[in-house]
TrEMBL record:
Record-given protein name: Aldo/keto reductase
Domain NADP-dependent oxidoreductase: 20-263
Organism: Nocardioides endophyticus
Source superkingdom: Bacteria
Pfam families on file: Aldo_ket_red
Key words, A-Z: NADP, Oxidoreductase
Length: 281
């Protein structure tokens, strides 16, 4: 599908995702279109957006002007918390398609469970039906715990293909990665570099960077790849976009992997986004 030497993961529905994707938040307007086009030129094929990022139009525009056929790109978006009721969720996905200017999505997520509202299983049922219709190729969830996953599986008999969760060295998600793997769900990592609090100076990261002759960012993304999760780093800068993709030419040792995972801490979440309590409408 894509010509670069990027490994792939086959999902539980048979679809294939590249081992790394491109995060588009908070890119907007012209910076978003040019930034996404340069990411595609660098070799990214999986583009991650959401209704709440307010940039679906820009993502669609980048897909149209980048010069690649639509089918070589994988576009993912997300249903916001305010649209969890079944009909609203269906309308939300149609709205995403309209803003993107696309006739199908490759992947669509329930963005957050918002358990106090308690309707995430309705949004999931809507995605199951939209996949049947062919409007969405693969369906996933984001920020779901084991209990949220088990509820949607029990209610629909359909297991999400992907669970996109916060995952970076300060929050390595050992337990949730196992929860996903036990259910045959592919993990994706949001804020894979740790956003602006990136742990680039941590000795576990900096020392590995020196040993392998790469940057700290590349070490963290390689750690993500070796964990088996799909990171979706965001960068507006073409040089960092290229560097972030260039993580398939070296391998971290078991000791280096463990030392980075050991940076995890109980208060490691970036903004306290605990899926059991965080409300994102
Ligand atoms: N499902 C969910 O709830 C969530 C999903 N997401 C998704 O995850 C994506 C990525 O997460 P995000 O929060 O952006 O965090 P990232 O961990 O991807 O970090 C992005 C930040 O790091 C900088 N950066 C990128 N590459 C490098 C590098 N090699 N060296 C130094 N700095 C670098 C970027 O700046 P610059 O642009 O200047 O390079 C930017 O400030 C989002 O874009 C979004 O698609 C994010 C949060 C929640
Ligand atoms: O970016 C996303 O996908 C989110 O879900 C937001 O929570 C985002 O990370 C944010 O705005 C954090 O303050």
């Amino acid at each position: 599908m894509w010509d670069m030497a990027i490994p792939t993961h086959t999902l539980n529905d048979g679809s294939v995702l590249p081992a790394i994707g491109f995060g588009t938040y908070p890119l907007k307007d012209d910076e978003a279109v040019s930034g996404i086009v340069s990411a595609i030129e660098a070799g990214y094929r999986l583009l991650d957006t959401a209704v709440n990022y307010g940039n679906e139009r820009e993502v669609g525009e980048a897909v149209r002007v980048c010069g690649l056929p639509r089918e070589e790109l994988l576009v993912a978006s997300k249903i916001p918390g305010r649209d969890h009721e079944y009909d609203a969720a269906i309308a939300s996905v149609h709205g995403s398609l309209e803003r993107l200017g696309l006739d199908y999505l490759d992947l669509h997520f329930v963005h957050w469970p918002n358990p106090s509202v308690g309707k995430y299983a309705e949004a999931w049922r809507a995605l199951v039906d939209l996949r049947e219709e062919g409007l969405v190729r693969s369906i996933g969830v984001s920020n779901f715990t084991a209990a949220h996953l088990d509820r949607v599986i029990a209610e629909t008999g359909v297991t999400p293909a992907v669970n996109q969760i916060e995952l970076h060295p300060y929050f390595p998600q050992v337990e949730m990665r196992a929860v996903n793997a036990e259910r045959g769900i592919q993990t994706e990592s949001w804020s894979p570099l740790g956003k602006r609090q990136a742990p680039f100076a941590e000795p576990a990261v900096a020392d590995a960077a020196e040993v392998h002759g790469v940057t700290p960012g590349q070490v963290i993304l390689r750690w993500q790849v070796q964990l088996g999760s799909i990171p979706i780093p965001k960068s507006a800068a073409p040089d960092r976009q290229r560097a972030n993709l260039d993580v398939f030419g070296f391998e971290l040792t078991d000791a280096e992997m463990s030392a980075i995972t050991a940076l995890g801490r109980s208060d490691g979440r970036l903004f306290g986004g605990d899926p059991d309590t965080h409300e994102e409408m």
